Amino acid sequence: MKTKIASLVAILTICFSLNAQVDRTKKPASGPAPQVKFGKADKFKLKNGLTVIVVENHKLPRASASLNIDNKPYFEGDKAGVSSMMGSLLGRGTPTMTKDTFNERVDFLGANISFGSSSAYASSLKRYFEEVLGLMADGVKNSQFTQEEFDKEQKITLDGIKSNEKSVTTIARRVEDLLTYGAEHPYGEFISKETVNNITLTDVKTNYNTYYKPNNAYLVVQGDINPKEIKKLVTKLFSDWEAGTIPTTNIPETKNVETTEINFINMDNAVQSEIAIINNINLKLGDKDYYAALLANRILGGGGTARLYSNLREDKGYTYGSYSRLRQSRNAATFRATASVRNMVTDSSVVEIMKEINRIRYEKITEAELKNAKAQYVGSFVINVQKPATVAGYALNRELYNLPDDFYENYLKNINAVTIDEVQNAAIKYFKGNKARIVITGKGIDVLKNLEKTDYVIKYFDDKGNPTVKPPMTMPIPAGMTAETVVDKYIEAIGGKEKVMAIKTTIMVANATVQGMALTMTSKAAAPNKTSQEIAVAGNVMQKAVFNGTTGYQEARGQKIEMKAEQIEEAKSNLVPFSDLAYKTGKLERIEPIDGVNYYVIKFNDTEAFYDLKTGLKAKEVKTVKGPTGEMKVPTTFSNYKAVEGVLFPYSIGVKSGPMDLKFEVKEIKVNEGVTDEDFK
For residue 34, how far is the Cα from the chain centroid? Predict the structure, then answer.
């Protein structure tokens, strides 16, 4: 026993000694990137050109097959949608099996079989896979295209187009692609009701017989399989799939704009703006700077910790999320930074996204940002390679892009080798902030006024991507609305006609500060049109204006100027204490949006009055006055309404004249007391 105790004490002593040598205040150094080993994929090719890739994975008793026909994209023109309809009609019956029988058998086996215009997919339990792959092969080789099924699919397609006619997101993506790639590029054309109505059953069959061929096709089979058995099965099922001559296509070259510009698509029903900042690039999987480009995009907008998200959502609260994406491609690669934002912050969001794009181009990222981006890639890569479908996809990529066999084995090593300078070089090369399209789909009447304040040229397009003109910046006035009904709504909003008409006199005292000096404005009014206003600085009256109902004057710096005849007539027409009553005889000119709020605008003599459509309250008056340099507009704003004797008065009044911007806060309002005829002499 003593020997055991002594041994235990010795072990504990050693442990404490070792722990004492470890500095717990320092974070342990990161280990090397994990070594990822991929199982070898078997590959063989049938005489008809079909390349078959087989990947074993015995973790689950399942298997799947994925067919990818790697034709170059082609332009469909006035029959855009024919390949899509063809893909939808695949598998709807063969010479040996009706559509219903086919579907019932797939359901019975608990399998999944689907078809596309250049693809097919099948998956099931291992025990049923031979039959399921046979069903898929039958659909691939022997699909029958009937008029009945064609008519159904054409109607479904047209119904889908109709349901998306007013979808801001759908139209945004459609026009973005058209402008990015060009109207005659396969990626730029779109399906419309006109092109769908041009398509016939014969067109669908011709498309299938022309392009759905094994020549450029890859079949990836993966799961709990035996490669030798799969080779026999695939050979048996697909060897009689006839090859054909696939037409060669010339894809138009994509081009960027010479200088960054805004492309605006007006949608009157848009409740938010869809923003996409896009430029074309030349980037393919396996390019020398591919890894640096990936990391640059991850830092800029590749997730919830990236710069775009942190700026536009976390800091500014403009959107639920803002992201960027690098789309590598052998045919037409792109960079996009996107966000869906509130109308009133559309211009600010554009400024912030462009700021982040240019910042990562012209300022080096930090070591911490690079380290975190690499860690995120390592983590997601290690997780994904545990999935059989990922391994199969990597095997296919090696074929499609002619990558070296150890491309993915070296993937993490290449990611970790990227430097800060390489990230900046990739950002400069691929994020073309100086030659980008800023495509905005939104409500012009709400957002264009502020977008016009930016430094970018704005070009306008309709929902089909055709050049058009600037949309009207006013909304239609509802039937029956007049200046009188707008004013009546205002009177009702502030307390009702009875209470308003009962007020015969008012006194208002308000304070403001300009250049450090305190101003006091005292205004008095008596029905029907007597007014007096004094502005005092430190108790000394600096400016005074009086109208007694017949004559009046203005006084400033000891000089008194009598009102002219036209000024007297205007003053007589101004009803007080509520000048809005006179506006009933004005003209309701338009509905104008300002910062996301719509206002009725009444024109009365040289004044425009703005009334909130929802609340009915007056928000602003703009008076046109003649100055030494010509006419100028003097706006006065009204807000912070509070009740006095049951009637609402604005307690915050803003006056802007030239460089002066005065903000008065009302300290006191009295009604029907303290005003006499002496105040208007």
Answer: 37
Give percent helix, percent strand, percent coil of the chain, each to the nearest 5. Answer: 35, 30, 35
Three-state SS for 115?
Answer: strand
Residues 353, 318: contact at Cβ < 8 Å?
no
225-281 pLDDT, tens per residue? 999 999 999 999 999 999 999 998 899 999 999 999 999 999 988 989 999 999 999
d(CA 555, CA 153): 81
> Rounded distance, CA 127 to CA 131, Å?
9
Helix (H, G, I), strand (E, B) or coil at 605: coil
- DSSP code for 514: E
Nearest to 370 by CA among 355, 380, 359, 360: 360
The Cα 373–Cα 423 span in angstroms is: 11
Q: What is the dihedral of CA 643, 644, 647, 648, to 10 degrees?
A: -40
- Closest among 603, 637, 595 to 617, alpha carbons compared: 637
Which tokens go with 542? 């600096």
Identity of residue 577: P
Pairing of strands 437-442, 457-461: unpaired
Whole-angstrom distance, CA of residue 66 vs CA of residue 352: 42
Q: Give the Å distances, CA to CA, from 558 to 522, 523, 535, 664.
A: 18, 20, 13, 24
Longest dimension (CA), the chain: 121
Q: Which DSSP helix (H) or strand (E) runs through 406?
A: none
Q: For 112-168, how does the pLDDT look when each residue is reduced to its tens digit (9 = 90+)?
A: 999 999 999 999 999 999 999 999 999 999 999 999 999 999 999 999 999 999 899
Give the whole-angstrom CA distance, residue 69 versus residue 86. Answer: 14
Q: Which residues contact 491 (CB under 8 A, 6 or more apart)?
A: 497, 500, 578, 580, 581
The Cα 126–Cα 233 span in angstroms is 14
Can you tell me which residue has the tokens 């900042």? 277
Residue 558 Rama label (left phi>0; alpha psi -120 to 50; beta): left
Neighbour tally for 278: CB within 10 Å: 22
**Alpha carbons 480 and 489: distance in angstroms, whole number:** 13
Region label for 630, one of left (φ > 0), alpha (ψ between -120 and 50) or beta (otherwise): left
CA dihedral over 47, 50, 56, 61, signed as positive or negative: negative
Backbone φ, ψ for residue 496 (5° rounding): 100, 155
For residue 90, which phi and psi values (nearest 5 degrees)?
-60, 140
pLDDT value for 422: 98
Q: Does residue 169 sit in helix, strand or coil? A: helix
The alpha helices in 385-521, defined as continuous H runs, are: 388-400, 411-416, 420-430, 444-451, 483-494, 497-501
Q: DSSP code of 78?
A: G
Q: At what angle do helices 147-163 and 82-89 cross, to 10 degrees?
A: 120
Three-state SS annotation for 213-230: CCCCEEEEEEECCCHHHH
Residues 563, 554 contacting (CB under 8 angstroms): yes
C-alpha–C-alpha distance, residues 599 and 167, integer Å? 26
Distance CA 281, CA 582 (A): 62
How many residues does this entry show for the chain? 681
**Token representation of residue 661:** 């911007």
**Residue 596 is which amino acid?**
G
Which token pair is 20? 């004492």
Note the Cα 676 to chain centre separation in Å.
60
Lowest mean pLDDT among 36-50, 254-268, 434-448, 473-487: 36-50
CB 584 within 8 A of CB 544: no
